Amino acid sequence: MSGLVLTPLQPALSSISCPSSSEDDPYDPTITDQNSAEIVGSRVFGNRQRCLPDKAPYHPLDVHTRLQNHPTLESMMKLNYCVLFTDYVQSCKYESCRFLVATRNIKADEIIIDAEEALAVGPKQATHPVCLNCYRRVDGTYLCPRCQWPLCSEVCGQLENGLHQKFECEVLASQNAHPTKEELEQDDCRLYDCITPLRIVLDNHSHPDRSRLWLGLEDHRLYRQKVGIWHVDHQTVVDPVRIKWQLGESINEEELQRACGILEVNAFEVCDDEKTISARAVYSHACLMAHDCVPNTACSVNPATQRMTVRAAVDIPAGQMITTSYTFTLDGTLRRRSHLKETKFFDCCCPRCCDPTELGSHLSSLACPRCSGRNYTVPEDPLNPASYWKCQGEKCGNRIGSSQVNQLLSCLQRKADELNYDDFQGLEIFIETWSSSILHPNHSLLIGIKYYLCHFYGNAPGFLLKEMSLRFLIRKMKLCEELLNIARILEPGASNFHCSLLKEFELAENELAERVTTTEDEEEEENDFETIHDE
User: Fold this and answer.
1) What is the pLDDT of residues 247-290, one digit of tens each?
2) Burial class (CB in 10 A: 0-12, 13-18, 19+), 343
3) Where is the SET domain positioned along the sequence (predicted)?
4) CB of 249 within 8 A of CB of 297?
């Protein structure tokens, strides 16, 4: 699928976690006894999902909800096969959660959410300087003629309907608020942290009719205050906007903090394949998708309109929740759960996180030192970061403490971070050194390197498909096959990762077939020549 790639980052609350709703949730339906529609969900107890009597992971509850007079029914009907559902979560600090569920069987590649317009789009946190209209990197050579913020070119500077011109340009110009030359030289210019929250606040001021859409989005205010991110946002967003830019009279602290929370909880990271675009966006329907570390959808954005499309990555049966992943699916369980806890404020307990082998993918498995790599060591309790790790070998059972595992992984991560990706031989040596003897060949520390080499071989200068030796062509195909086996488990169906690997494999396979055919033709011609010569 062409267009921008979205990395969705959205918290949720059950084992298949769900975005929670605010106290005054305008989406909450009114329960009545007529004109009802069956809804599907899962009850949650503590941090783990408990299956209902028939053991089905998504069991229909005896709940019927009247949707006829629902305030967002019309917009919900634009979601071809999904219906909004509100369920109460037991033994959890959040009172309710909302998620999308299939109301009929959905075929793989069918569109679930079609070209949804973003509620808000803007720069990411701690980003390098970017154009405030197209979000591509800028060097400060062209400045907006009104507010003096850098833009990529005169094209973006003269847009009449650009988001920069629509929202913050006039406000920033009136306060002479723009980054200094020194600030623009920083790789993480923190003034850009202010732009997207400011757009949300200004949108609420200028379009009060849209406030209902924002009201339904969670900001986890109390939790953010507890863990300290509230104070970081105060320093990087609230103080610059209200004090440095002198907008305190028209914008209060509470609405800026709420905007920051909405973004941290609900925003999708938007980037393109070449990583030239750096932005984040909030989509009112897409952000209702539940989280799962093995998602059943694939998301993309049209680069021209920034509208988001969600497709079914696999067949989704009626009654199953529509899911996406709000973390990097190719990270191991420890890193995924840590990232989700720190940035999205929830503990994921999906089936993959609960499985020591990560559904057989072994992205976290280590080679057992006692078995000399013949067996692999996995956590006894993958949901507990302090869990002991135990060898899976029947006659071994060797256990390793979590501190020893963390020390090993930290050491290897530092080595991986120091790799020079222009040196393909160094990458191959790293894989050979640590694969099997220390790490499972599928370990997440090796996956990124292997994925890079899949694209390096066949696309880099000196290693183009037509130029590569047979050795490297076969190596490319082997790497693609290894990663495709992982993709079938963790990103099944038409995911971006899966499709990219399949494309590279097919290109290499076709090239190999051409070479074999050419070799056979040459041998046949040589045999014909020898036959004629003998005659």
Assistant:
1) 999 999 999 999 999 999 899 888 776 667 888 999 988 888 88
2) middle
3) 79-327
4) no
- For 93-124, give one letter per residue: b (16+ CB within 10 A) or e: ebebbbbbbbbeebeeeeebbeebebbbbbbb
pTM of the model: 0.75
**CB neighbour class for 337 (10 Å; exposed up to 12, middle 13-18, buried from 19):** buried
The answer to whether residues 17 and 60 belong to one domain is: yes
Pair 178, 149: CB distance under 8 Å? yes
* Measured distance CA(367)–CA(435) in Å, rounded: 9
Structure tokens given for 349? 């307990």
Cα–Cα dist 375/38, whole Å = 48
As a three-state string, the secondary structure of 36-100 is EEEEEECCEECCEECCCCCCCCCEEEEEEEECCCCCCHHHHHCCCCEEEEEEECECCCCCEEEEE
Secondary structure class of 309 (helix, strand, coil) = strand
Neighbours of 158 (CB within 10 A): 12
Establish if 513 belongs to a structural domain.
no
Tell me the residue type at 140.
G
Domain annotation covers residue 482: no
Are 198 and 301 part of one and the same domain? no
Distance CA 55, CA 66 (A): 27
Among 338, 335, 336, 376, which Cα is nearest to 357's? 376
Output 8 or 132, whichever has higher pLDDT. Answer: 132
pLDDT digits (tens, 9 = 90+) for 278-317: 889 999 888 888 889 999 999 888 776 778 899 999 998 8
